[in-house]
Amino acid sequence: MAIDGLIILDPTGRPIIQSSYTNYPAAYPLLHIEALNNALAKAPREGSVDPVIYVGELSCSSACCHVDVGGMRFLATISGDVDPLIAFAFLDAFTEILQDYFGVVSVATLKDNFDIVYQLLEETLDSSGHPLTTSPNLLSDIVLSPSLISKLLASVSPATPGVPSVRQGGSFGSNGASGAFTSPIPWRKAGVRHNHNEILFDVVEEMRGIVGKNGTTLVSNVFGKIESNSKLSGTPDLTLTFTNPNVMTDCAFHPCVRLQKWTRDNALSFVPPEGRFILADYQYRPPQSAVVSIVPIPLSLKANMDMGEFGGTFALTLTSRLIKVMENLELKFYLGEDATSAQCTLSSAGSSVGSVGSADGSWSFNSRTKTLQWDILNMRSSGSWILRGSWTSKIKAPRPAHAFQIRFEIPSYSFSSLKVDQLRLSSETYKMYKGVRMRSKGSIEWRW
């Protein structure tokens, strides 16, 4: 079983790109588009639509799996006994490919590059609906990027019989026919050359947690990934070791990683692809000595809520539990579908900063989504941040959400304290620059 096809809808719900659907009736994609648009129109608030929508107007069971990408909807239709996770995995891979080619994925970008998008769709999904080539390094040899097409048109002349198709890496014109499909290593091109050899690693960890009404952490997990950007000449053979690899569990690796080496020595041995790729995904395993396998939440929230007729009042106090500075903290509170307005006052460390916000924070009320949002750009380790306010509702007994959604970022920090020991290079004689950077973020549901 496979994916029936892919449809991309603009913010108004109209299709701008779609698979051919040659094996299906003409009305097949239209029914799925209509089902999704109807579900979005009936949704009480943004983000409340099920990611998988069943379509029952057909003789066979089918569904559409959809994700939001820059205000657009990427929709993959499936039928029969296909696992929806296959569709979502393909949607994620196709979105990453578009970001790799165009940078920002928007309606204007797709319309300006219709030919490239359709070529990518043909190469990544065959006529039977089975995913094919989803590696950007391999696709770059088949489908030229917009920047490379511009270079090609600018440099081609009657005296120039051919121009190489190289999108990343060394000098333009150095690889010619030696692309990824002529290389003995599927994920790496042959003959790559750089004037400056370097490889960079970003260890990105994300906390996902739920905190109960009494402030007790119910669920708290940390998932990490090692993002890499390789600009190395030749065929480098690398070995990456860690001082504490035991904090990583449930690992998933890029195909370039030798699994036997990791199983035996807890070391990552690999020949990296060219450019950006995800070397590994993992889940943080807290120390075995911990009584409960829960990672501490790096902040605390005290919420005093008073529900009344046609509205309510609240006082929210945020405090950081870290020495590190937390950045881009965002707290969202859904006030109910009948909410009409909100008024708030901010204070920091006991000092009032007014109702319009300052460098210490700001608040806003979205009348369309009925959501109150509190933003703090930099949350220091000392002091507290307080948001007091009230809201009004059209009904006598308002029904706000009984949970706050909190997001934050922590630069140069790792929940797992994962540390790189060393990176060794073999099979090449040049010296390379190597860099490692830590970055963390979080998504917490705090109930009241």
Notes on the structure:
- This protein is α+β, with helices and mostly antiparallel strands.
- Helices cover 17% and strands 41% of the residues.
- The chain has helices at residues 27-42, 84-102, 107-112, 114-124, 136-142, 146-155, 259-265, and strands spanning 3-9, 15-18, 52-55, 62-69, 72-79, 198-211, 217-231, 237-242, 248-253, 267-270, 275-284, 299-308, 311-320, 326-334, 339-348, 351-354, 362-366, 371-379, 384-393, 403-411, 420-426, 433-447.
- Strands 9-11-7-6-22-20-14-18-17 form a nine-stranded mixed beta sheet, with no helix packed on it. It has a five-stranded antiparallel beta sheet with strand order 2-1-5-4-3, sandwiched between helices. Strands 12-13-19-15-16 form a five-stranded antiparallel beta sheet, with no helix packed on it.
- A hairpin with a 5-residue loop joins strand 1 (3-9) and strand 2.
- The longest helix has 19 residues, at 84-102.
Let me know the number of strands.
22
Strand order of the largest sheet: 9-11-7-6-22-20-14-18-17
Question: Structural class of the secondary structure composition?
Answer: alpha+beta
In whole angstroms, the N-to-C terminal distance is 44 Å
The percent range for helix content is 10-25%
The average pLDDT is 86
